[in-house]
Structure formats: structure tokens, C-alpha cells
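agent> fetching stored inputs for the 2-acetamido-2-deoxy-beta-D-glucopyranose docking request
agent> found them:
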Amino acid sequence: MGSMDDHPRKPTHTRNCTTRSNLKIVLLLVSTNLVSIFFFSGVGSSALRAKWWGGYAPSIHLWDSEALLRELNATKFELSKYQSESFELHKRLGVANSLLQTLLTDMGRTQSAQLAQWADGWAREPTAELKLAVGPHKLPLGYTANLGADELYPTLGTACRRFQDELEQYMRYDVGGECPPDDVFAQRLMLKGCEPLPRRRCHPKTARGYVEPVPFPASLWTIPPDTSIVWDAYTCKNYSCLVNRNKEKGSYDCKDCFDLAGREKDRWLREIGELDFGIDDVLRTRRPGTVRIGLDIGGGTATWAARMRERNVTVVTSSMNFDGPFNSFIASRGLVPMHISVAHRLPFFDNTLDIVHSMHVLSNWIPDVMLEFALYDIFRVLRPGGLFWLDHFFCVGDQMNATYVPMFDRIGFRRLRWNAGRKLDRGIEKNEWYLSALLEKPMT
Ligand SMILES: *[C@@H]1O[C@H](CO)[C@@H](O)[C@H](O)[C@H]1NC(C)=O
Ligand SMILES: *[C@@H]1O[C@H](CO)[C@@H](O)[C@H](O)[C@H]1NC(C)=O
Ligand SMILES: *[C@@H]1O[C@H](CO)[C@@H](O)[C@H](O)[C@H]1NC(C)=O
Ligand SMILES: *[C@@H]1O[C@H](CO)[C@@H](O)[C@H](O)[C@H]1NC(C)=O
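agent> prediction call returned; pasting C-alpha cells
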């Protein structure tokens, strides 16, 4: 809340002021027009008439026609004087009116420019820390050709403005202090498309009794000490709880991933059936040493990256913390975690990576258009000749041939391996399918 005091809510004030002065102007317009109406409508004339009959009513002497004419002439003169004064007044009112109208239009324009500056999809004008996070900010050295502008906007997910209430709650924090313990809430905002998040000026809570990680390469297969992280956001409060999760009932994301001595130990080491490719078999499709850098999308605890690391391939693993400290765990293994969702445009440049892998993440839960975005993005970041290992893509029945096969073909990958197989764990009648494929970005 301290941040509120740091940055006075000037724009809100300005806006109220503008509204108030606009109201005044409207009242002024209405009243001047009433005056005109008064003068030039029946009301005005009858007032004049009343005046005529009152103040200037001549005393009529029928016997003195000359005097009568004089009186009439005098009255006519008076009347014409009033008339010309009235016309003058009318003219001035007209000028005043048009001036006011111009003024009002100008003010309206200024106000709508102000509105446009923050409206921009926001329900209310962003204030305080959120306003800073939204920008724009003037560049201290002025225009720069790199930006083609003299101001810049901090990067912020466009969907943020759809969740302004939640975002305002998220942005209520002590600038310079400790970030509120709201990881789950924050990650939900991200997953709804408010990514990247706008909070930039607090210190994350750190674990009490933090101990340095185990040295590499032992770190790759070591469960870190419980004191290495903050457990607030998770159901489990220690690693043995997470390791034992595979024996628990209930569905958890990547349920057996933390058990490094269990199933994780053998993953990708051998070809198993049609759907489980072996890492070495995949690497053998390229000249030795030419697969050097890569990305694992939704890589759980990064065992794929660990196996790649053992083969001298550097892999970044994107992972969300779904009721588990996935990112922290990956980091303590000595691997690079990246906290971005599958909706995020991949933060790599075109034609750069040698390999991209993804297992159990890309599947039919993703809206078709967004899946296509993700696939095109993978194609984009892969270098020519780069590999996309699509591991256990999941879908149901006709979706495979009706939707996904055409989609994969559309992206432009070349098929090196392509195996579709039934997923049988929930029964054959469910008609669930897996696809494992090794795709190549063509050289030309
Ligand atoms: C009427 O009054 C005007 C101004 O007082 C005068 O110039 C004019 O001669 C008068 N006309 C008659 C017919 O008296
Ligand atoms: C870990 O947490 C579980 C509950 O989540 C608890 O039962 C267990 O005793 C804890 N183990 C250690 C070693 O702290
Ligand atoms: C990885 O690189 C190291 C150092 O260059 C080398 O000694 C080792 O043999 C390499 N490992 C593999 C699997 O290529
Ligand atoms: C998709 O089409 C191929 C060939 O046209 C066919 O062999 C396969 O069974 C179909 N797959 C599904 C899941 O329907």
C-alpha cells in the first residue's frame, strides 16, 4: 500500500476536475440559450410589451392628434432602439455560444485523449504501481532509432487488463519490501494470459536456513534439502512428501517426477514400444555434436534436460509450479528452469535451437488456434535441420486424423518418425490416442 502514497493519483483528480468543469460549461450553455430564448421568443416580446404598456404607455388625448403622433413617434423610436440593442445582444450571444461550443469540443477531445491513454481495455484507470507497470515511460535520452520511439511500455500480457480486480490485488504490495505470498494466485493470472506479470519491485520470500546446492554433476540426481525453498504455495511441505506422491491417490501434475530414483531414472534411456523413443536413438539421427542447445516445453522436473546435459547438450526447461516447486527443483539440479506457460511466445530468436522436446503438455486441452501458434513457434525457433521431438501427444478418436495430422503437416515439418498408438490405461473404449513423432525443420 506504501506505493499509493509514493505516486499521487493525479490523473484521477484531473479527470474529476474535467468532469466537473464540463458540467459547468453545459450549465452555462443552457443558461445563455435560455436568455436568447427569453429575448426572441414570445416570452421576450410580451415582456417588452408589458414594459411598453407600463413605463412608456402614452397618455392618449383624442383631441390632440399632433401630440398623439409625437407620442407614437417617440414610442416607435424607443422600440427601434430596443430592437437594435436586442440584435446586438443576440449577435454577442451567438458569438459566445460558438466560443463555448469550440471550448467544449476541445475539452472533450482532450478528455477522450486522456481516456484513450489508459482506457486501452482497462476497466478503470490504472493507478500507483500498476500505472507504472503499464507505462509508458519517457526515455531519458529521448528518441532512439532502436525503438523508433521516445517512450517505452514495460512488457505486460494483454489479457492482464481483463482481470483488473485480481491484478489490482496482485499489485498491492510494499515497494522494496517482501513480495506477498501469492504464488498460486499469480500463476493463475499468468495462465489466464496475464503473462508476463507486472510486479517488479519486491523481494521474493527466501527460505530460512537456505543451504547451497550440491555441486554438479551430483546435483543432477540429488533431492535437495527441504530448507532450500519456501513451501507456502504447495500442499506438500517437504521433498519426501513430493517423492512419495507417486504412491498417493489423487491426480497431481507430473505425479512421479520428483522420485528421481523411480521411474524418472530410466526415462528416455531406451526405446520402449512405438511411443517411447530413446534419447541416443534420436541424437543419432544428427551428426555427432551438432545437437548442442535446446528447449523442453513443460519439462516437469527436467529429467530430459538432465539426460541431455549428460550428453553435453544445454537445455532450458519450461515448467509451471502446479502444486509443486518444479522450477526450484530444476534449478537445484543445476539445470535452467523457465517459468512460462505454453501460451507464451517462445523467448528465443528465429532459427536458433538444435532441438525442442515436449511430452504430455501439447495435447487436445489446448485450443486449436493456440496449439497451432505453439507449433509454428517451435518451427520458428528451430534452426534448419533442427529436431522437434513430440513425445506422447494426446487426443481422442477422430481428432487425430481430422484435426491434428493436417495441423502438423501445415506447419511444414518433415516426418522422421511418426507413431500413433492407442492409450489403453483407461480402457480401449475411450478411444484415446498418443502420437510420438520426430519431426525435422527442413534445411531449405
Ligand atoms: C420622429 O422622431 C424623430 C426623432 O425624434 C424625428 O427625427 C422625426 O422627425 C419625427 N417624425 C415626426 C413625423 O415627427
Ligand atoms: C513431510 O511432510 C509430511 C506431510 O506432508 C509429514 O508427514 C512428514 O513427516 C514430513 N517429513 C519430514 C522428513 O519432514
Ligand atoms: C562431454 O564433454 C566433455 C568435455 O568436453 C567430454 O569429456 C565428454 O566426453 C562429453 N560427453 C559426451 C557424452 O559426449
Ligand atoms: C488415421 O488415418 C490413417 C490412414 O488414413 C489410419 O490408418 C488411422 O487408423 C487413422 N487414425 C485414427 C486415429 O483414426
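agent> quick read of the result: The chain has three domains: 2-118, 128-191, 266-298+342-440.
agent> awaiting further instructions
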